[in-house]
From TrEMBL:
Keyword terms: DNA-binding, Transcription, Transcription regulation
SMART domains on file: FCD, HTH_GNTR
MF GO annotations: DNA binding; DNA-binding transcription factor activity
Residue ranges of coiled coil: none
Keyword Manganese: no
Pfam families: FCD, GntR
Name under which the protein is recorded: DNA-binding transcriptional regulator, GntR family
InterPro entries: GntR_C, TF_FadR/GntR_C, Tscrpt_reg_HTH_GntR, WH-like_DNA-bd_sf, WH_DNA-bd_sf
Length: 232
């Protein structure tokens, strides 16, 4: 594995030399597409590149395994998890259930600060929807959806959603939305935000379910195209 991104800039600051800090760095590299599916993550080399002992690296890899981002295999070690079409179907099904519930809850409990933060997040999505990289689009989309789960007011829901969304963005970072899908997603996000602003829980829940379903269809189409390209 060659040094990439944060891994190629030498030892990390002392404050990040914990399992949480190492997990954060590796997660960012995976989200940015700099650590590719199937890429090995050898403990010794990671520890050397980050300037830490192997213990926080090992603990970070276990954390990322629990998030579905890393696969740990006996006698092989850790690799960035390769996502399958079955994974995509499952994760978007979970998102449909969890995020529609979160949107309904958020419509009833959101604060003025929540709405302001969502407006800022939506404005950023609009700015980068046409010209942003795949990773920039994915992270901006992640931020918008995370804010909704936070506005729902449940720490447990937020924790579960963070894991589900992390898995999604690791795949979504590999492809940019074309202009038509980007425009549709912006329209869908705006409608959800308007429902939250109106405290319309039923509509927010319905719109989020439809948005996740349309995102799922596009993700599966992209995955199918990608598999076809590999076969040919």
């Amino acid at each position: 594995m060659q040094p990439l991104g944060a891994l190629g800039r030498g030892p990390v600051p002392m404050s990040q030399r914990t399992s949480e800090g190492v997990a954060r760095i590796l997660r960012t590299e995976i989200f940015a597409g700099q650590l590719k599916p199937g890429e090995p993550l050898p403990e010794r080399l990671l520890a050397e590149q980050l300037g830490v002992s192997r213990t926080p690296v090992r603990e970070a890899l276990f954390t990322l395994q629990s998030e579905g981002l890393v696969e740990l295999t006996p006698n092989r070690g850790a690799t960035v998890r390769t996502i399958t079409s079955h994974d995509i179907v499952q994760i978007y099904s979970l998102r449909g259930v969890l995020e529609s519930y979160a949107a309904g809850e958020a419509a009833q409990s959101r604060t003025r600060q929540d709405l302001d933060a969502l407006e800022d997040a939506h404005a950023k999505l609009e700015r980068i929807s046409a010209s942003g990289t795949a990773a920039e689009q994915a992270l901006a989309d992640l931020h918008f959806h995370t804010l909704i789960s936070e506005a729902a007011g449940s720490r447990l829901l937020q924790t579960i959603m963070n894991q589900v969304l992390a898995f999604t963005v690791s795949y979504r970072s590999n492809y940019a939305y074309p202009s038509d899908r980007a425009a549709a997603a912006i329209t869908e996000h705006r409608a959800i935000l308007d429902a939250l602003r109106a405290s319309d829980a039923a509509r927010a829940e319905q719109l989020m379910r439809e948005h996740v379903a349309s995102s799922s269809r596009f993700a599966l189409e992209h995955f199918s195209d990608e598999e076809h390209a590999v076969v040919n």
